[in-house]
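Case study 2.
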Amino acid sequence: MKADPKAEAAAPAAGGKNKLFMMIGAAVLVLGLGGGAGWYFMHGSGGAEASGPAKKDHGSSKKKKEAPPEYLAIEPFTVNLQPENGDQYLQVAFSLQVGGTEQVELIKTNMAKVRSRVLLLLSGKKASEINTVEGKQQLAGEILAVVKQPFSEHGEEQEVSDVLFTSFIIQ
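Prediction:
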């Protein structure tokens, strides 16, 4: 039994056509998926969240995406402390964690008021009050309170969330 030579020649051609159709189909599929992914990312997932599966909220209300905090370094202060055992000085530097670039600019614009408030606060302290970790934490809270005070009479509080000491020396 000999095979028909015409049938043998047709078989590889048919296999090549099938391979070609599979490659074209795969290319169309990849392009379709790429286009779909591009559309999804270009139009955001805002609509997808509303119509998609519900995400677990863990009991909290919906929050807008918060920008990363901004930090504003305050130039160091050197002040005389209230006398206990002779003259003592405090040299302190800190940064403020604020609610955004608008707040950074507002504080920079009013830096004279910020420095005056902090200077008055620091110069009323005794070394024994601020020498411990608890004393430093309390001082950070007091600095936070005076910096948050509005700059104008009926203005809003500044959005300052933390005071971070970068240097703290009592001599």
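The two ends are 109 Å apart (CA to CA).
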